[in-house]
Amino acid sequence: MLLNVIRRLGIFALTVLVASVLVFFLLGVLPGDPARAQLGLQASEEQVQALREQLGVDRPLPVRYLEWVTGFFTGDMGTSYATRSPVGPQVLDALQVSLLLVTGGIVVAVLIALPLGILAAVRHHRPDGMVFSAISQLGISVPNFLAGLLLIAVFAVTLSWLPSGGWAPPNSGIDFFRHLALPALALGLVNGAILARYIRAAVLEVMREDFMRTARAKGLKPGAALLRHGLRNALVPVVTVTSIEFANLIIGAVVIETVFVIPGLGSNLIRAVANRDLVMIQSIVMCVVILVLAVNLLVDLVRPLIDPRLRISS
What sequence ranges are listed for the domain ABC transmembrane type-1 (predicted)? Predict the structure, then answer.
């Protein structure tokens, strides 16, 4: 088990290093000049060249990469081309906001997916089970931004129960939850519907296994057999899918942050792209990559705890 953890940590570190190379060089070779984008078309070539030297974009890519990656992993993410201020504090503040939003979305998704997926599987031959499946299919077809706009129209504009946008820090108490409710719900509804489909498929597969028939033959009712023996086995593929859904939540958060005017990674990324602020873009993308890889690593370490058979195979 310890060797498996060490091996996976090594793979994680190597993947992060390769990702940093890809992120930097793919963004670095994109057409366009940050200095020209800031000064405009009317600036002289001498002014543009002076700003290139000031920003450091006139140096070779490998030199800039070594400086950036060394600084990134030591806490110095560089200086923003647009604001001329350190990137690190801006990215970390936005990362905290996005993590809170994504965590809220995960909670909403799980609260929706677990009962909906299990009921759709247990009652799949009955009309209400078909209704549960239809609800999950409908949820999959609704984009995140449309769900957000509909929630704003109902709960913010019509009922005036919740704010339509903005953000409040966690230490603001109830105001924080009021600002988090709609974006987390918009983010979690669609992903909850997707996760419910996977839970339904996993539970249906487990219900057909021999050990479930044996449990029922010993006198357990179907629901009790599922709770005592089936759900733990069904959780293995669901946990794996949840790690994939986490990446979808991060991507969906970009749109939701724009709809609800939330100062997270997504809104900062869109602003950095508009300003061609490569240092900011690279740092944000790298933080997202590390976050997704860390969640996948955590899932790989948790799966053997859920299913002891995986300890032997690993």
Answer: 95-299
Does residue 302 lie within any of the structural domains? no
Higher-pLDDT residue of 136, 177: 177
What does the alpha-carbon distance between residue 253 and residue 52 come to, in Å, rounded to a whole number? 33
pLDDT at 14: 92
Residues 33 and 179 in one domain: no
Q: Among residues 22, 15, 76, 81, which one has the least CA distance to residue 52?
A: 81
Same domain, 160 and 252: yes
- Residue 151 shares a structural domain with residue 225: yes
Do residues 158 and 51 both lie within one domain? no
Domain that holds residue 123: 93-285
Q: Which residues pair with 86 in a beta bridge?
A: 79
- Average of pLDDT values for 220-240? 71
| Token couple for 44 | 């002289």
The H-assigned helical ranges of 219-277 are 222-225, 231-259, 265-275
Give me the number of domains the chain comprises: 2
The residues pairing with 185 across neighbouring beta strands, listed in sequence order, are none
Contact 227, 184 (CB under 8 A): no
Residue 114 and residue 128: Cα distance in Å, rounded? 16
- Between the alpha carbon of residue 297 and those of residues 7, 15, 27, 96, 122, the distances in Å are 11, 11, 26, 20, 32
Among residues 267, 225, 265, the alpha carbon closest in space to that of 93 is found at 265
